Amino acid sequence: MADYRVPSPLAREAMAYVLAGGRGTRLMELTDRRAKPAVYFGGKSRIIDFALSNAINSGIRRISVATQYQAHSLIRHLGRGWNFLRQERNESFDVLPASQRVAEDMWYAGTADAVYQNIDIIEDYGARYIVILAGDHIYKMDYEIMLRQHVDTGADVTIGCLEVPRTEASGFGVMHVDGRDRVVDFVEKPKDPPGIPDKPDMALASMGIYVFETRFLMEQLRRDAATEGSSRDFGKDIIPYIVKNGTAWAHRFPRSCVRSSNEEVSYWRDVGTIDAYWKASIDLTDIKPQLDLYDRDWPIWTYAEITPPAKFVHDFDGRRGSAVNSLVSGDCIISGGHLQRTLLSTGSRVHSYSVLDEAVVLPYCEIGRSARLKKVVIDRGVNIPEGLVVGEDPEFDAKWFRRSEEGVTLITQPMINKYLESR
Q1: Domains along the chain with CATH numbers
Q2: pTM
Q3: How does pLDDT run across 310-351, given as a tens digit for each residue?
Q4: Which residues sit in the known binding site for alpha-D-glucose 1-phosphate?
Q5: End-to-end distance of the chain based on CA atoms, in angstroms?
Q6: Given 3-state DSSP classes, what are the helix, strand and coil percentages for the chain, each rounded to the nearest 5?
């Protein structure tokens, strides 16, 4: 098999097209005002920053982002944090909102349609290859390695795949491959997922990452657009057609996953539920987390707000500004409160005698005095009233807030307002 770690300039011949229009309904109220890719993650980043950073770090300098649902905060973030690419260096960064380019009554009908409606813009890029990316997953990956495999195999499409236990693969699109990883069948959410030839207890699940030659993809999109009954979707229409009528190869994620010396596993997370989002966030507080955000060789780029340092004040028994096994972002003030396994995002305030345990706090929140909050996700800009206790009485939590199946409580400002009105 080819050595996929031989450097080459393939990334300079490619563009990245990021699909970032998804609502993410399973994140409940977190996506009432923002698309899933715009949800905060890791204290200062957004979820989409991971796919975009992977592209930049891989050497891809031509990027487009297709947006649709609740796109304002996402577009604002992209404009602030991703405006450093320069046209005079053959670089570009375009945001492509759904604009009814095909018909006045048509937004993006599916993932493939989100590309098809911008064919003229894509062709103007003149890129030989196109990498289709989902904008709503947390991972670090060198797309150059996947591009090299695509060229070496002569594939029509190369599909990024995760190795998952067969018992857990029924919720994915699953690749049935031969001994060389050529895809011989694609099954959407199968009841009995096919195993991998060399690992029969595992299955290859699609990551929603695809590499094409640009000209070939444009031909397929035009063919699909003319096909009656198509749902205009990569996973449901484009990929199955190519598997049946062309050549598709699987690219196993561990081959191109980027790991620092502190990372022992190939890390990929879909943070599409409150429970998964909370767990991935809290995992960052581990002494040696599976995802290394401090890897200077593969930085996660984002909009860097100009903020003062975090500050801890008061030093009395029961009123000591402190944090243990926690991430505290810039412009945060812990004023006599205590954090334990907590992620505190930019600009938040924690007042005296309050205790936060396994809390994910989004930017610009205010935690009132004597509040006790355990296993919570707090939306941006929420003011927690003095003395509020969440995480100790499941019935109370479920009555006023959004409590998940695994006991994580989501708190938003409208929920707080209803609680205060009842008092």
Answers
A1: 10-272 (3.90.550.10), 311-422 (2.160.10.10)
A2: 0.94
A3: 999 999 998 999 999 999 999 999 999 999 999 999 999 999
A4: 108, 173, 188-189, 206
A5: 68
A6: 30, 30, 45
